[in-house]
Every structure is written in C-alpha cells, then in structure tokens.
Design brief:
Chains A, B, C, D: Pathway: Metabolic intermediate biosynthesis; chorismate biosynthesis; chorismate from D-erythrose 4-phosphate and phosphoenolpyruvate: step 7/7. Chains A, B, C, D: InterPro entries: Chorismate_synth, Chorismate_synth_AroC_sf, Chorismate_synthase_CS. Chains A, B, C, D: It is an enzyme of class 4 (lyase). Four copies of one chain form a homotetramer. By secondary structure, the first copy, chain A, is an alpha+beta fold. Chain A contains nine helices and 18 strands. In chain A, the strands form six sheets. In chain A, strands 1-2-3-7-4 form a five-stranded antiparallel β-sheet, with helices on one face. Chain A starts with a strand and ends with a helix. At the C-D interface, strand 1, helix 3, helix 6, strand 11 and helix 7 of C face strand 1, helix 3, helix 6, strand 11 and helix 7 of D.
Chain lengths: 365, 365, 365, 365
C-alpha cells in the first residue's frame, strides 16, 4: 500500500535515505538454485556510481553491495535476498538552508506537505541515490533472464539537451562517459563542459531495449507489459515521458503503416515496440524516456521559505549537470525487473498449458 | 497477480469479453455513505459509447449500466460495488477468418501464444470495449472526489492524425464529436471523412487534466503519482506514449527554466505537470498521451495464418477510423481512478499527522 | 486493501448482499485451456444450498450459477471468470425491527459502527449466503487440481452440539443431511429435531481434508500453507477455531511423539496435518474447525436499540438451527482455493528448478 | 506473491536466515511523525531473546536492533523503516549430519523439496529466530497504537505440557521465566527441569489479548479481523491451533448462551472474543493458540537420509525444551501488527464518514 515494493512475483522492497546509515532492498521471489555473488551485482552498480567522470556528480560513494540473506554456498535459496549498500560519503554539511527553503524542481515542498516533516540531507528519500539498490536487484534479474532465455538489456543516450545523438552502434556505449552509441563524443564533451560552466543543467532522452524476448509476457488488463514498463520508467527520478515503439510518432502514422505485418520469418517492422495488447510479441522491447534537467543548479532561483515568504535559493554542492547520463543503467535495471516479474507471473498461470515460451519464427512455423 | 484489478485502495476488478454475455467490474474500497445511482454513471459511459457520430464505430451498444451490489437505499455501503453492462449487439458474425489469421497491430498473435487459445469474437478480452466498465468506475471516483475536494477531471483532443488542434477553451469540448477544444471543427470533419473513405485510420494525441488537486498524493517509491498515471494511461488500448507536464519537451530545457519557481501565491509555472518527487504539488495534473491508429482497417495487410503461411487480411466490420476520439472519457476516468486510489492510500498512512490536504497558497502562507 | 479478494494468484473477488439483485465473484488467474461449464459448478453449490432438508433453513434459493466471462467454446481462456447467482427469494419482509436493534452474535453493531450505515436485509453482506460464490469458485479449483495432480477435497461433521460423531467412513457423508461419516444418523436427527423445537441453536465441529497433495506448496514466511488455511477457515462465517493436524492436542504431547517419523515409504504418522515449516509434506491436509451456534434464534435476547436503550430481540424467519451443517462444502471449497493459489504461486518461483511436484515415496527413493 | 511481507498497509517484509550475516525487516507504511528509537524496540526483543533462563535455549544472541532508515532526528518520516539484527552467535558447527538427514517435525524435507536446496545451518529460514524482527516491528505498532488509541497487548501462558496454569493476574507475567500469570511457579519449574533431563520437549497453550480496542476494525470479506489474527498466529513457528473468544468451546454452546448480549454499558459477555462479522466490537480481543513441542530433541528419532534410506537422528545443540515459552512476546507482536494494519486500512476507506473510532459505551449512548 505504501508503495515501496516494486513488482509482485519478483518483488523488490526498497529502503533508505541518501544520507542515512545505509540504503538497500529486499528481493522476494527470486528463483532458487541460481549462482549469485556480489561480483554479479557490482559491475552494474558501478556503472551508475557517482564520481566516475567529470560529467557527473563528484560525490564519492563506493557503493559496495553486501548480500545479507537468501544465498547459501553461492546459490540463491528461494528466500528473500537482502542487498545492503552503506552510505560512506555523508558530508557533515549544513543543511539548514535547504531545510528552510523549497528548491524548485525538488520534492522538498511535496514531502513536507505529505508527511509533516522531511529529511533534508541530500534529498532524503527523494534522492536518485535510491536507485542504486534497484540497479543491484536488476542485475539479479538480468543474470537469471540471460541464463534462462538469453534475454539481454541495453540502454543508450539518444539526446542530451539540444544535441541529438545518432545511433552508430551498441559497441560504443561502454567507451564514453555518456552511454552514447557513438564513436566520437567530442561534441558532447564540449556541450557538457560549457553547460557545467554556466551552472545550469539540461535534460536527456534515453533508449532502453530488451532482446531475445519470449512471446507471451504481460497481463493484458491492467498489468500490460507496456503499462508496467511505463510505470517503471516514470518511477525513475526525473523522468517526464515514456514511449513504447513508435511512441508519439504514432499520432501522425496511418494504420496501414503502423500495424506491423507478420511474415513467416517474423514481424516486418516494430512500431509496436515489442508489445501488442499488453503482451510481448517476441520482438525487441523498444522504450524511450525523457529525463528532466537536474534541479540542483548554481543559478539562483525564486522560491519561498517555510513561512511562505519569497526568497532565493542556490543549490551548492556536487551535482550532475545532466542526471540523464547516469540513468542509463537504471533504466536497463528497471526494464529487467519488469520482464522478470512478467516471466514469473506468466509461469504461475500458464506454465502447464503452453510449450516453453518461444519467439515467433519458431512458434509460428 | 493476473492483473485484472486496477488500484489498491480503490480496487477495480474488470471482467468480460467484447462479445460474451456481459462485461463489468467490481469496485472494492468505495467509501461508504455516498449517494450513488445509475444516473451518476451513465453520462460518462454514454460519452464513450459507440455509434454516436459518423466518426466512430457504428456498432450499436446501449451500454446500460446496472448496479448489482454495494448500494443500499441509494447510498454506498462500503461493500463491493458490482457494475454490469450487458452486451446487446453481438452480431452472429462469422469469425472463422479472423480466427485463422493474425491481424497486424492486434493482439491476436500474442493472446494465442500466451494462453494457447483465444476468443476471436470482436477482439475478445483485448477489445477497447472493456474500458466501458472503467469509465463507469471512474464516474464513481469522480463524484466522490468532486464532493470531497472539488477535484475535477477534463480531457480534450490535441491532435488527430496530421491535424494539430489549437486549444481555444474547454467549453467547446462537449459541442463536437471530436472532444476538440475548438469552436470550428470543419477541418477535422473533412479530414476524418477523407480518412474513412480511404479505408485507413490515424492516431491521436490527447490531453487529460485534473484541477483543484490536493497536495501530498502519491507514494514516492515506487507508486509515485506520475508513475501510476503512466501505468494507467499506457494501459488504455492503443496508447504508445505518456507525458507528464513538459514531457519530452524537458529534454531540451535548461534546469533554470524547467524547475517551477515557488511564489507566495503558488507555483509560477507547471513544467512538473503537478507532480514533484512522485507527490502531487496541488497544481493541475497535466497529462498527454499518444494513441496509435486503429488496427482494424479495410486496407489489405500482409500477415500469416495459424500455420505460419503468408496471407493477407482485411478487417471488415464497424470500426473507429481513429480510436483516439473515444479515448477522451476513458483517459479522464483512468486519471480519476488513479487520484482516488492515491487519496485513500494517503489517508491510511498520513491521516492523523496532517491537517486536511490543502493547496499551496493556503498551506504555505 | 478492502479485502474482498481471496487469494493472490488464483484471486477470487466476491461481491453482493444477501437480498440485493445478485451475488457473485470474479476469478482472476484461472489457468487457460480447462474445460468448464456450469455443470462443473452447480453440484457443489447445490450441496450448500438452503432448503434441502428440514435441518437447514427453509429459504428457497435456486442458486443457479451463470458464467459471464472467461470461457470460450467451453474452455477457460485465462481471462477473468465472472460467476453470477441471482437472488430470487428476497421476501418483501419488514426489516424495520432488525434495523432498529442489534441482534446478539450478529454483525449488526459492528457494520453500523464501521461504515456509518448498513443493509439490514437478511444480514446484508455479513450473510453466510456470500459463501455461495466461493463454493462455485472452489469447484473450479477442485476440477483443475483433480485433473492436474489428482488432489481431492473432502469434509465431514465431527460433532454437532453435544453429540460427537464417530468416523465410520467417507462413503456415508453424501447419504445424510448432516455430512456425517456415519451409517445411522437417527441420533443426530432426534437431537436436531429437539433443538429446533426449543427455538435455540448449536455449534459444530468439522473436519476438512485434501488427499494426494504434492510436496512443496506454501510460502514459508508468512504465507505458510497452514497460515493461509487458518485465514481461509476463520474467514468462513461463524468459525471460532482452527486446528491443523494434532491441533490443540499437541499441547500435551511430547516432542518424541508429535514429530512425525520419516520412513522409506512415507511419514509414519500425521501430527503435522500435512504441513511442516509452512510447506506441504505430501501427506493429507488435516484441518478441523469450530463453528459457533446460529445467532438467529427464536429465544428472546437482551440487547439495545440504536439509541442505546435496553430492549429485547427475537429473530424470526427461516434460519439454520446449526449453521455448521451447511459449512462442510464451504470449508472444502475454501481449502481448495488455498491449495490452488499455493500451486500457482509455487510455479511462479520454482517451476524451473524442480521436477514436477511429487509425494514423498516417489521423491525420496 | 512470495509471501515474505506481512500486512498490507503496515507492511513488514522479513529477511534473513538463522546463521546468515543478519536478519531484519522493512516496515512500509509507518505513519510519520512518531518518536522512535532503538529504546522503543529493544525491551520486547529482549523478552523473546534466547539465553535468559535455564528453561530456554542457551544460544547467546545479543539481538541488538539497528534502525537503518525511516527515522530522522528521532521521528519516523513515513518512509520505510529498516530494522537490522546482526547474527553474532553463529557457532562454526558441523552441519553435515543435519544436512544429510531429515529431522522429524522440522522443515528440512519440505524446504529441500520446494526449493531444490536448503540452508541447514540452525534451521536456516525456518528458524524461529526469524520472529525477532517481527517482535521489533510489533513494538513500533504497539507504541503507535498505545499513543493513538490507548490499545495495549498482553500475553500469558495457559498451559505447559500437562500443567494447566490458573490465571491469577497479569502482574505476575513479567516475574517468572514462563510468562505465567501465577505467583508461585515452582510446579512449572519442577516440570520443566524434569522434562529437560528427559531430553524430550512439550507443547504449550498461550493467551494473547488486546485491550481498549476501537470498534470497526477489520475488512469483512475476507480480511476479517479474526481471519487475519488466525493467519498471523498460525504463521508463528510451531503453532497448530488458533481460537478466538469461546473457540472450540462454542461447539457445545447454545446460541442463547454464545451470542453476547448488548447492554447500555457494553456487551455482557465476550464469547465473540472481540470480533463479530470480522469487525472489532470494541471488546478485548481474546486469542488462544496451541504450540507444538520443540522438534529438536535429544531422544533418538527414526527418519530417512537424502537417499531415502532409513536412519536415526538426534538433534544436539542448544534448544528450547518448550518453544511455547518464548512465543508469548511473539504472539503479542503479531497481534499488534494485525491491529495496526487494520487501523490504517480502516482509515483509507472510512476516515471521512465516521466519527473517531469509539468503544461501545460511548458510541451507543
């Protein structure tokens, strides 16, 4: 009811605040018998870790994941997997100004109104830092889905601020600090350097995808696979828009163009983005999301204080000039969690009637 | 788990198929003591009913709502409210062709793969007809939210196919068959007439909004108000994209522009779309959705049959050339259901700590 | 949240009031592809139907089940199955006295305090009549579990009022109106005839069991199979106690006696009642429940009216002198729903790791 | 779905294994603004801690609770409260024998069959040690319920093995190691000393109660307050039976006796145990539970090994001769969690219609 659990069959309960003793999550429903160690989780967590380039926040968090339960002799036991990340870089900063004013674009005002009090340290529970345990949980899902079905998840940057990023190939993504599918990122470097100097921030548009998807995942009303994806993506800090397949482009398409033809070797196109009627088609999942500019900026902003009196606020400290950059591994993880949950739920209802989930070419021939 | 229930505190369980004996829903969690009769539900259901203009499907369904439970002497009792709509216009059509081929853009293939069988009559469970009970349930939520907080929900068309629709005023919406906020819809009429003649279909973009919103609704992780909205909207048949506030426009915004300033009389702008950190700000909720072109068209399409052999399919029958048109009352209803659920959930946790939910001007002064 | 849904994977949402237009339920999560018709449901519903002997209420309800959705060409489609039972014997009785006084042992007072109003007709939502849709839903589960695993459910009477009923054999149960496992029920007939003449009522103790149980069902914390059974049984109207296996008898047992030894051919005894650590052992489930005396009696009772003033009340009308009698098929149905839910949930998490669920003898050899 | 979360509105997700690094829980839905520190939790946790008398296991666990999240400057923030207890006394014991044989009365066999593997160290997840975090979570609920409504929870021993314990008064309970409501416990001491020498174990019967209960708690179908209590109690390790109010005694009662009369000053009796129609009456909740004898005993038992071959097993180590003794604070905590959840859920649906929840005398006058 309070909503800190993501998923129903692979249910991840998240806890913690940005500057409390620790953050973490509990995964309930992990299939037993899978080999699992910290080494499976740390690489993805490190991909979203702060302080890895000059284009992201310089906060230095080790983000070391501990597995507190659910694994025995290196294998999952089917009992809850608790993942813990200690907060190490909690600067003994003075939060009195942040506590006394509402920062535009932040959740300061809404948290205070909802709960009657709030933890102002580093954004408290509203911090994007709380996505780190989800990335770790997503890594568990990714491993299982890869082993079981060969499903893989990938994300890349499509646009940063005003700069559209052409897609040259997935192989470039790990080679630059922007998760850009591009060989030469000098233009992005220049753009980001200038942005940082201005003290301002910018938005971003990301693409996330899943390949080797089985057919048949998703509960048509209302837990459609695409509805679950939209929920997961819009739940990531700062996301303001979600598209599946053709997305908003479908508005000006004709039905004769949009509807993907079926052929003996598979669908001819993928305007659907891999989902029809809320159920996976076996095509790649294609998702695009919009991430708003970082709200913590050095440019002075008009606001009010706790008494409602007008004032100004500047957010000092170490902040990402484009939070969208570190969102790529987060979006991948959330997509993996959605697919994982859908697989387990599908098995509950349909395991006995159907042959193993298969892609179109195999099943339709 | 199987996903046919929408909401947690105001939980609506949907049932039925397009051409079965009846469709309907059960509302669990409706507050007791509210006056309720069919007269409260029928107007919204009639707004989405087929056959009301030449621009929508000519299927003639009365869509008469019956209240089977949960109301005694004209008041809700707090027990489940079952709403039933009998299917009256089930033409004794021959579905053998539809049953033997997969229609592009439809859920034929995915349902068959998921369940091992499917009901081909009128799209079965995948039909947009299943939104009718949600519109009725949404009307219950709308009535309660209006009485209790003065919250109102409105929707209008922003674009049909290639035609962008300027916003002239909400008062025009009920006066034309397109839900267009526009005095003169002759251009739309001409566009739609031509489209219908071509046997093809087009997409649409809608706006839905809630006014007089209280502050403090939404569960920040993960059942954020915007995440729930995205889930609800993407769960409507044919929706491929969802935006909150600035939406995809935020990608090229600067932080200094996007973050809405707070002033003693309220927020200066609404790029947030009424949600910060997953919690309502008290501003209007602003949501935009993209709806794909109708998949049932007269233009012949390439596809495969049940044996995987290539073939063609034409979808005869009575279909909406733009399903987006009738989606306006559906989107309003789904938004109302999200807000209703958020209010009840908020009360569970926070009822004792806080003063009654209030908008910014009042609370911050 | 409002609790009118039973189960998570095989989720049954119940609706209706005793004297409203209809009662019913929606089953969400039913596996697809199972043959299902009203003929599968009606026999169990008829077993709990009123008016079948002089030892139960003479209310004449046909209790005809209709299937409104989820079945196509005689097979379940995997979509929600709505089961409807019209209320036919709604006597135009004067409920003003019942509405003005609180009947001892009834939910009159608690409903009014909880909801601020109540439906006094025939007990409204608190009527045991609301178990009829659960019996129908249980019949769906029974059919599937029998086909899939050979699991069968049986119930019988162990005690009526002061009369202990020796167990002579299951074959007697359908041959007498008391569900007694006894050839000669003349003693029970005499007891019940006398009770009825006195205008009073009595309690009962029932046994319910499941045979051919698979090993491995149940979620150890907290949705243990026995915890779910206790929840299901205590949720039946008038139940005040639940035992699994040795039950309260375990208090004076020694550990050396209670713990069931394992042998190469199976467990030597069944003090566990078929559950260890919340997970099924493959032995028969053994459950015993206590049902309180009917609260509607002709004997005058002290009570208060709506103003809190002392008064007396007599409950006229057609009532069961021992509600426990008709509870046998209800308890069987609820046990079937618990097992069904546990099977589907088990498949979600463990389907890929394990061989098909097997009983001890087979698996341990 | 996997069931490691208890409650819906005050949802406690439990994690950990007996001999893993740590055990704990995450409370989701805790009302904000309540003062909370470890000092509120430790006393109850200490009451169930092992090693406190010679009548319980000598395992030495400090059971120090840490609050990892959800509290800021000494107050709950409304965000998840993670409670952690490090396992300190994990003896480097040889578990090879336990791992190779199934101990009668234990969950060894069922865990292995369900998950395909199991953690044999100290019972793994099936250990009663996992109730410690629930006791801590229960302490949070107790504090809030006491402050808000004056509700208090109490438990005591009613019977240990063959020794019935007369009720002399609640004041005795904290003064003896048996939670006995009795001044002179010498008879119990002698009984337990003899039992321990025999290497065997015995069962117990406990009473738990809540006083100053509000009227109106509980969701009538199916999350009745008594059904939730039965679920909670049967979910405690080793519980085999649950009674509410008159319990199994109701079987031989007459309706004219069982139904509690209402008078202007309240109910005359409490056969209902504080619940009618699944909703609290405002009377004390009265619950009784049966706890089986400890399965870990020194008496040799017949069993089978992993290959299904017959063998014997003795459970050495430090075990409670009567696990029921330490179950008293556990049962209190679980009852508190049920009531807490019911209060929050009641507020969601009914907060606006009703006056504050009140007991009978006040409301009916």
């Amino acid at each position: 009811m309070s909503g800190n659990t993501f998923g129903k069959a692979f249910a991840v309960t998240n806890f913690g605040e940005s500057h409390g003793p620790a953050i973490g999550c509990v995964i309930d429903g992990c299939p037993p018998g899978m080999e699992l160690s910290v080494a499976d989780l740390q690489p993805d967590v490190d991909r979203r870790r702060p302080g890895t380039s000059r284009y992201v926040t310089q906060r230095q968090e080790e983000d070391k994941v501990e597995i507190l339960s659910g694994v025995y002799e290196g294998k999952t036991t089917g009992t809850p997997v608790c993942l813990l990340i200690r907060n190490t870089d909690q600067r003994s900063k003075d939060y009195s100004e942040v506590a006394a004013k509402f920062r535009p674009g932040h959740a300061d005002y809404t948290y205070l109104e909802k709960y009657g009090l709030r933890d102002p340290r580093g954004g408290g529970r509203a911090s994007a830092r709380l996505t780190a345990p989800m990335v770790a949980a997503g890594a568990v899902a990714k491993k299982w889905l890869l082993q079981k079905y060969g499903i893989e998840f990938r994300g890349c940057m499509q646009q940063i601020g005003d700069v559209e990023i052409p897609f040259e190939g997935w192989e470039h993504v790990p080679n630059n600090p922007f998760f850009a599918p591009l060989a030469d990122v000098s233009k992005l470097e220049a753009y980001m350097d200038e942005l940082r100097k201005s003290g301002d921030s910018c938005g971003a548009r990301l693409r996330v995808t899943a390949i080797n998807m089985p057919v048949g995942l998703g509960q048509p009303l209302f837990d459609k696979l695409d509805a679950e994806i939209a929920y997961a993506m819009m739940g990531i800090n700062a996301v303001k828009g979600v598209e599946i397949g053709a997305g908003f482009g479908c508005v000006s398409q004709r039905g004769s163009t949009h509807g993907d033809s079926l052929t003996p070797t598979g669908f001819a196109t993928n305007n659907a983005g891999g989902v029809l009627g809320g159920i996976s088609t076996g095509q790649d999942l294609e998702v695009s999301i919009a991430i708003k500019p970082t709200s913590s900026i050095l440019v002075p902003r008009e606001t009010i204080d706790l008494n409602g009196a007008p004032t100004q606020v500047i957010t000092k400290g170490r902040h990402d000039p484009c939070v969208g950059i570190r969102a790529t591994p987060i979006a991948e993880a959330m997509l993996a969690l959605v697919v994982m949950d859908a697989v387990l739920r599908h098995r509950a209802q349909c395991a006995d009637v159907l042959p193993p989930l298969t892609p179109l070419a195999a099943s339709a021939t």
